[in-house]
Amino acid sequence: MPSFDEVLKEAGEFGRFQKRVFFLLCQTGVTFSFLFASVVFLGQAPGNYWCRIPGAAELSKRCGWSLEEERNFTVLPLRLGNGSSSGECERLDVAWDASVSCASPLARYGNGSVGNLPLAPCHDNWVYKQPHSSIISEYNLVCGNAWMLDLSQAILNLGFLTGAFTLGYAADRYGRILIYLLSCLGVGICGIIVAFAPNFTVFLIFRFLQGVFGKGTWMTCYVIVTEIVGSDQRIVGIVIQIFFTLGIMILPGIAYLIPTWQGIQLAISLPNFLFLLYYWVVPESPRWLLTRKKGEKALKIMHNIAKHNGKYLSPHYSEITISNEEVSNPSFLDLVRTPQMRRNTLILMYAWFTSALVYQGLVMRLGIVGGNLYLDFFISGAVELPAALLILVTIDRIGRRLPFGISNIVAGIACLITAFLPEADIPWLKTTVATLGRLGITMAFEIVYLVNTELYPTTLRNFGVSLCSSLCDLGGIIAPFLLFRLADIWLELPLIIFSILAVVCGVLVLLLPETKGISLPETVEDVEQLS
To answer: Where are the bilayer-spanning segments (predicted)?
Structure first.
């Protein structure tokens, strides 16, 4: 009986059929990047806001004040009397009633005594010039509640982490395309609920669930693409990363055109419903079907692939070799039971963690420096395009392992040099070296997706990729806390930590087997035989 790779070669390893499926699934990268980075625009600073004095709303209505006039009567006297207060997180400890004068509401306290009035902290009584522009103004995430914005992103990453375990397992058990479609449906439904959440608790719950399903769409589409192309074409996995970058570049345009956070949330969530149409055009992975003893279905799909590619399968292909390995419910022990699998798993987990932590840390450190948020965010995404192009140029000529290791080491060295370059003398050089570090870690981040997929057998591939990539989400949760806490001690200290992590990662990944031009392993025994 022929092997799957022999049948795939005859049916076409990257013909018209695979190109169509590949292009369709690449769109998932765009929508996933929307979810990944949306907090930047959903949580934009609301601009001018202040704490309203009790009774001010009724008085403002009676006196016919505009918001600006109300602000002048409440905040300006506070600033004149107490120069250290901005009127955003505290207010004068007074209350206005019907006896207060419209012309001079603070007259009863005397012109010179405003500074002696006691101050009170503000609780749920803020006024915003643009009340629905962001989740900050919608749910009062200001002053003592400001940390809740960081919580919303941490909850999303926790959703990614949960999705990696639960939906990664489900895709290996119940099929790639089924879990992909259910995840797309989940992202869309949860996204709509998030947009109309009546309170911040509901917002967090469904943002968490959107993270769970979002990770399901991203990981499963990546595995489907990798499993239906030949070993020489698996670099298409890198191209999916380019679509993620395109999403990062498109997002500021969406946010610029839509003035409210609910509108942005709907715009980035609703496209997921379109992916449900893939039920009719994207087949189940034939590799997965073979591992579940469904050879007839796999062969039917292979005949369909050959037909669309203008090829013809030989009549004697009545059956395809099925993995002799018993299919069982995958667990972490399956990934560490044998020596080569154990080495691969531990190194890949560390590589995912480091890539995410250093990548997000450098993005936040370089930041979006003043100016136009939308333009700066677009440029920060454009910096990532050369990384994917460099990978496409080198990875099939040199292999996976060397670019993987070098990109990490370059990122580490760039972080170390940046830490000790003086800002005042040559700021352009410091920015250039820091950008080189960003380029290096972006390359490493994109290569780890490809290498992770190629180092696990079909029976454990989705589970293995999901489990290892869950360390990426852990890195994403830790990165902001690590960056800002260490920066309080010394501004450049985070770069030293990033440097150590990246260089160690660069050395470790050189211990992984080279997978250039090798068929995807079908069993654990195949992985153990990789040199």
So the answer is: 21-42, 154-171, 178-198, 204-225, 237-258, 264-282, 347-368, 374-395, 402-421, 433-451, 463-483, 489-512
pTM (global) more than 0.85: no
Sign (positive or negative) of CA dihedral 392, 398, 403, 409: negative
Instruction: Note whether 338 and 39 are within 8 A (CB).
Output: no
Q: Do domains 1-47+139-324 and 330-530 have the same CATH topology?
A: yes
Cβ-contact 470, 165 below 8 angstroms? yes
Rounded to the nearest 10°, the torsion over CA 517, 523, 524, 529 is -40
pLDDT value of residue 269: 95
Per the CB < 8 A criterion, the answer to whether 327 and 461 are in contact is no
What's the rounded Cα separation, in Å, for the pair 12 and 5? Answer: 10
Place of tokens 């006691």: 118
- Beta carbons within 8 Å of 103's beta carbon, 6+ residues apart: none
The 3-state DSSP class for residue 106 equals: coil
Q: Of 172, 168, 174, 178, which is closest to residue 283 (Cα–Cα)? A: 178
pLDDT digit string (tens) for 297-335?
Answer: 888 888 888 888 888 877 766 667 655 554 456 677 777
Can you tell me the mean pLDDT for 30-49? 85
Residue type, 59: L
Strand, helix or coil for residue 91 = strand
φ/ψ of residue 503, rounded to 5: -65, -45
Query: How is the chain split into domains, by residue range?
Result: 1-47+139-324, 49-128, 330-530
Element (H, E) at 50: strand 49-51
Secondary structure, 3-state, 192-233: HHHHCCCCHHHHHHHHHHHHHHHHHHHHHHHHHHHHCCCHHH
* 98, 104, 109, 111 alpha-carbon torsion, rounded to 10°: 180
Nearest in space to 413 (alpha carbons), one of 386, 433, 383, 392:
433
Which one, of 493, 431, 463, lies nearest residue 173 by Cα? Answer: 463
484 in helix, strand or coil?
Answer: helix
Q: Which of 457, 412, 466, 465 is nearest to 439 (CA)?
A: 412
Residue tagged 């039917």 (tokens): 300
Q: Which of the listed CATH numbers 1.20.1250.20, 3.40.50.300, 3.30.450.20, 1.10.260.40 matches domain 330-530?
A: 1.20.1250.20
Q: Is the pLDDT assigned to residue 275 strictly greater than 50? A: yes
Say which residues have a Cβ less than 8 Å from residue 487's Cβ, sequence separation at least 6: 493, 494
- Give, for 126, the enclosing helix (H) or strand (E): strand 126-128
Question: 127: helix, coil or strand?
Answer: strand
Q: Contact 249/384 with Cβ under 8 angstroms?
A: no
Q: Is residue 421 a contact partner of residue 431, using CB atoms and an 8 Å limit? A: no
- Model confidence over 229-246: pLDDT tens digits? 876 666 677 788 889 889
Residue predicted with more confidence, 105 or 186: 186
